[in-house]
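ok so for the tutorial part 2 we go from a plain amino acid sequence to predicted structure tokens. step 1 is just haveing the sequence, like this:
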Amino acid sequence: MIQRKGFGMRHIAVLGSTGSIGTQTLDVIRHDTEIKVDVLAAYGNVELIKKQALEFKPHTVCLYDRDRAKELKDQFDREGFECTVLSGEEGLKEAASMEGTELVVVAVVGMIGIAPTIAAINASKDIALANKETLVCAGHIIMPLVKEKAVRLLPVDSEHSAIFQCLAGESHESVSKLILTASGGPFRGYTREMLKSVSLEDALKHPNWSMGKKITVDSATMVNKGLEVMEAHWLFDVDYKDIEVLVQPESIIHSMVLFRDGAVKAQLGVPDMRVPIEYALYAPERVSIDENTMPDFERFSSITLQKPDMEVFEGLKLGIEAGIKGGSMPTVYNAANEEAVKLFLEGKIRFTDITESVKAAMSAHRYIASPGLEEISKIERDARKFVKGRFDID
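step 2 — the prediction. this is what the tokens look like for a chain of 394 residues:
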């Protein structure tokens, strides 16, 4: 069981509970009798969210897919399980802003995470953020709102959690540079020509981390690191010129901070997502879970740091360019990548078509300096349509 002090009973919502981060979050909570899961939400996995609801007994469950939500409600009604079932974007926003909930874990995948995050912040909830799109596409909206509502925005992503931990007790003025590390994915050392022939099976073989298919492909293209650079800019209020990416193949150093006096802080550990999840749930306290894998320090005897090849892995280069341009460009970058990855996972395009599609979408886009939520949604739709159009896919 978790050993902690000073919190008392806490009430949380887990949005994206059936995904990789969501299930691992519930795995952490499973060992803590002083956390009550009030709300579970997911896209449309009826079987798994029902199983989670029966175990954690939330008062509210939401499925974004309306048909699946109706199916779930019918099952609950037949079995006499008392639980409110919500659906759609409005249901997700309601689930994120429930009275009595203190912390909302946002682990839904894709653009649908933005609206419930805003709803939760407006309801003065602290946010444990594992959804990249929220800051990548709407950082200019989210961060002023976080400041206005005086809520905590706690990063779940391992690299941002590492930086968050390294910055504890430090002043913003003392920071010289943020250094995000990357594993390099399964194709580290490949040439562009070699990448043309890689298969889906190859792309899903991440050397260190166990993640969902989409983020595993993003790691292989290094698009995920482009997204993380943008997130770091918003989370830590650091200029893009002061954010560096280094490849760390062993995935032992999760990220670093260089300070003005030349000192460097690095957060090290095993590649286990439960560690940053725990820190987001309990920060600044650290908890102990019996099942956690302890570091094997013999693995730490060889730590490699390399500069990424941004000509071969153009996804990272394009991400940095999109972040520097700002405005609507990060949405184009993210949406074009999402659609291209979807097509790749369906076997309809080649691996190298992913970043080529992102580059083409960015080149074709008519820039908007400060898009609102409706404009962001339209930009997303247009970018997806553009990518599908490149391959004559309806």
